[in-house]
């Protein structure tokens, strides 16, 4: 019985992130539009977009190889699994132990690798721009992300996300400088990885400033739908990660009654709404930077995360 | 030390990924860049198997890492380092347990089956909902496709962003653009100069010292036989003195 409930909770979680991801995108778009005193699209518009793309017949370039056709499925699946493995509303889910934060970073890295290769497949200049810039951003964002992981792992004594969340939920951790630095670094990495405004513009129509959009320029139909869904899932995964590590309030600890799960889901939705609104506000307040200023931004994230780890080594209370 | 090493490892992994995106993307993807490449044909299955076998082994290594880590354990111990990973053993054959008191934190098989299940589910669902139709058409390229293959990214342009970011620090990279004035028929040129700092900073000076010392000692080779014998005798005496002093 217990196993059945656990299995059900895990399945619910997988489909919950899948269903909630477009809503989060719609929510950030809506808040951003309202902050600009525009009406903005409907909250459910991303679902309609995905449905429309899914029903459309994809047009493939004449020289597209098998890699171009399989990459959307690979990208979507790996990001979906990554998003499903971040604890959202409860800590001790059935397969939570099967992976840790480092494996999660690897999953997201694999998705980026597949997409960068797909960008080069057709042999257009824009695909090359996108792939080369994406690999440049990744080469700085990944070390920063791993240093954040190390900071949190040093504190909690585990790289497993459930264990970290439970530790931060129950132990008197208090306010720590190292955690604040790690939070800042993780937010910067999340903005860069999700192609949000100071680094990349998700709604841009100017090819020379595109990074992520330039890579997926040749995609259409169901392939594009999968890639759009994957970016929505990636945003959900990163925001869930921030919420799970730094704001673990309202998460249902392992071993509690299954009737508490709806409460945890509500808390998660509230946290996602707040983080999404904060992201929209931040995007509204800042202008997009030149591509070659991005390394400075990500270098900042790297230094902050390194300082966080260093502080934990120097002193146990900071 | 461990976090810094880990960050460097992540940097190395990201740079390796960038390197292989470039390598695979330039060598195997895109439009043919030369008439010879356009006429290329697929090799026989045996040659392809030579690439396929290591690829499958890589996948197996990721799905079942524990036996390999157990195999590597004695090597780490022989190097005089403390093997920080506990013996994974038969129970942990499928999963990796960095800290034995906790449950596994990486289970390749579970993750792999998750991936296969979710991927299959996605593929079936997408084809059910959207149909499996597909149309081939000309390249879109934002409306301005140029059929010349030289408009594609090359190895040098692919690595330009990373070279600009890390090059000045690590390789003392220098880019010089020569732009001729209008009406000047000469072509514009982009020159990139890279300096290997380790070679220039450590090996070159060392080699210089050795060569200079060899030049100084060269005259010793052109002596009379008496002087040679005196030299050999002096070396022998000084070696004996050294051994005696060492006792």
Care to describe what's here?
The complex is a heterodimer of chains A (318) and B (247). With 318 residues, chain A is an all-alpha fold. Chain A contains eleven helices and one strand. With 247 residues, chain B is mainly alpha-helical. Chain B has a domain at 61-130. Chain B has helices at 2-28, 35-38, 45-63, 65-78, 108-130, 155-158, 160-170, 197-217, 225-246; strands at residues 95-96, 106-107, 135-137, 174-178, 189-193. Chain B has a two-stranded antiparallel sheet. Chain B has a two-stranded antiparallel sheet with strand order 4-5. The longest helix of chain B has 27 residues, at 2-28. The interface between A and B is large, with 81 and 69 residues. β1 (59-61) of chain A pairs parallel with β3 (135-137) of chain B, so a sheet runs across the interface.
Q: What is the number of helical segments of chain A per DSSP (H or I, 4+ residues)?
A: 11
Inertia-based shape of chain B: extended
Count of structural domains of chain A: 1
Residue windows where pLDDT falls under 50 for at least 5 positions of chain A: none
Ends apart, CA distance between termini of chain A: 44 Å
Counting DSSP H or I runs of 4 or more residues, the number of helices of chain B is 9
Radius of gyration of chain A: 19 Å
N-to-C series of helices and strands of chain B? HHHHEEHEHHEEHH
Helix share, percent of chain B: 55-70%
User: In percent, how helical is the residue content of chain A?
Assistant: 55-70%
- Give the helices and strands of chain A as they follow along the chain: HHEHHHHHHHHH
Structural class of chain B: mainly alpha
